[in-house]
Write a structure and sequence with these properties.
With 479 residues, the chain is of the alpha+beta class. Strands 1, 2, 14, 15, 18 and 19 form a six-stranded mixed beta sheet that branches. Keywords: Hydrolase, Membrane, Protease, Serine protease, Transmembrane, Transmembrane helix. InterPro entries: ClpP/crotonase-like_dom_sf, CtpA/B_N, PDZ, PDZ_sf, Peptidase_S41A, Tail-specific_protease. GO terms for molecular function: endopeptidase activity; serine-type peptidase activity.
Length: 479
């Protein structure tokens, strides 16, 4: 099965494509094509001709064709996308964890660009951008009407050049400009430290090419500090995803050898695949098993996985696998629900499309798409509660999102009411001083969810969520 990694071995991160996406990178286009619908093709040709002859001013042929392709692909779901020359290069660049920009993962909301999270240590992070900030202008360009890829292009640039973002921060009821100097972003995707004697914390902010090696090194450091580790917290909060082979490797670090980590299913034969906790599914070509150096004790150390609404794609694969095998207790909030695979198919030497080709499933066969991973223990963000969880965006909230193929979805009236109540609370919260509203940094001594995870590992009572409940899909009805 190792050969299938060349088909489904890549996962893009939100900072590249402007969305949270699990992505396969395929080097050859599909050989066979379905018969073309001639009548519809004739209509397309007729429209092209009318635009060329009747539009108020001349339009470039190439622009018309590429815009038509982009519109066709974008109409499918939030994660399918057309890549022009520049965005294709940026996509490939992003999987290495190095690029020149401001350092934010973004998505789209109400026609504006929404910050999913600033990359830790990036210029955007240092400038104080926050999750849920809305970008209304990039330099002098209004964001309304821009595609995600166009917004990414405008925020990218040469090192040491500046870009000004106009930020709408709803929870503070203000709009303000932030000028950021672009630089090469070398994201550090793994952090770790001892929280207290016997209990360690390791955080993965993305799954990149270097993540597995960094993960192994950080685990080694923790065990050097305490060879008899009593418990470990794997923190995947706000982790938007990354490379699939890295997710399989991190899962394999904790699971028995050769068990299924994730499976995928779609129309194409190559979309039907099973990935196991074995080096042939995650080791890079020409290198040995990167997990060989890990302490044997890691397979059995008590484990808690922390997740939230920002945990997506590859991080959901890890959380789902560890939960299914009861290897870890998953704690936090229901995850984003990004459970589809996008294959990148070249259209030429420097253009291509990213097309949704499969859904992925946990080892027990559960679809993650539009549902996410439901924690074993729901946790609020603070001891006072998690009053604004209803306002957070997940895959199921995205326009044209793909269903999970197992349940039908209907508008959740209860959730809509909860959103309205949360908006009112947010208005009141905005009147408080900023210092009273700021959530503590992940891994800090004031990190409420981390403290609850340590209590879980110690066998002590945990303060479960006062406000959260599982977001369920409606079951299909048989007429």
């Amino acid at each position: 099965m190792g050969h299938k990694l060349k088909i489904a071995g890549w996962v893009s991160i939100g900072v590249v494509a402007g969305a949270l996406t699990t992505v396969s990178l395929q080097t050859m286009a599909r050989g066979a094509m379905s018969p073309l619908p001639l009548e519809e093709i004739q209509q397309l040709s007729a429209v092209f001709g009318l635009v060329k002859t009747d539009y108020v001013e001349p339009v470039d042929d190439k622009k018309l064709i590429t815009d038509a392709i982009a519109g066709m692909v974008a109409s499918l779901d939030p994660h399918s996308q057309y890549f022009d020359k520049k965005s294709f290069a940026e996509f490939r660049e992003g999987t290495t964890g190095k690029f020149v920009g401001v350092g934010i993962e973004i998505t789209q909301e109400d026609g504006l660009i929404k910050v999913v999270s600033p990359i830790e240590g990036s210029p955007a992070f240092r400038a104080g951008l926050k999750t849920n900030d809305l970008i209304t202008k990039i330099d002098d360009t209004a964001v309304k009407g821009l595609s995600l890829s166009d917004a990414v292009k405008k925020m990218r640039g040469e090192p040491r050049t500046k870009v000004t973002l106009m930020i709408l921060r709803k929870d503070e009821a203000r709009t303000f400009p932030v000028t950021i100097t672009r630089e090469e972003i070398k994201t550090q995707s793994v952090k770790a430290k001892m929280i207290e004697p016997g209990y360690g914390w390791i955080r993965l902010s993305q799954f990149q090419e270097r993540t597995v090696d960094d993960f192994v090194r950080k685990i080694e450091e923790l065990y050097k500090q305490d060879p008899h580790l009593k418990g470990l917290v794997l923190d995947l909060r706000n982790d938007p995803g990354g490379l699939l082979d890295a997710a399989v490797a991190v899962s394999a670090a904790f699971l028995p050898s050769d068990v299924t980590v994730v499976s995928t299913n779609g129309q194409l034969a190559e979309s039907k695949a099973i990935y196991k906790a074995s080096p042939e599914f995650y080791a890079r070509r020409g290198s040995g098993d990167p997990l060989k150096r890990l302490p044997v004790a890691l397979k059995t150390v008590p484990l808690v996985v922390l997740v939230n609404e920002g945990s997506a794609s590859a991080s959901e694969i890890v959380a789902g696998a560890l939960q299914d095998y009861k290897r870890a207790t998953v704690m936090g909030s229901q995850t984003f629900g990004k459970g589809s695979v996008q294959t990148v198919r070249p259209l030429g030497p420097d253009t291509g499309i990213k097309l949704t080709t499969a859904r992925y499933y946990t080892p027990s066969g559960k679809a993650i798409q539009a549902k996410g991973i439901v924690p074993d223990v729901m946790l609020d963000e603070t001891a006072e509660g998690d009053l604004f969880a209803a306002l957070r965006t997940r895959e199921a909230d995205l326009e044209k999102h793909l269903g999970n193929g197992q349940t039908a979805e209907k508008k959740d009236e209860v959730r809509e009411q909860a959103r309205e109540e949360a908006r009112k609370r947010l208005e009141e919260e905005a009147k408080k001083p900023l210092t009273e509203r700021k959530l503590p940094e992940f891994g800090s001594e004031k990190d409420f969810q981390l403290l609850q995870a340590i209590k879980q590992l110690r066998g002590q009572p945990v303060l479960v969520s006062k406000t959260q409940s599982e977001r369920k899909d409606e079951k299909k009805e048989t007429p």
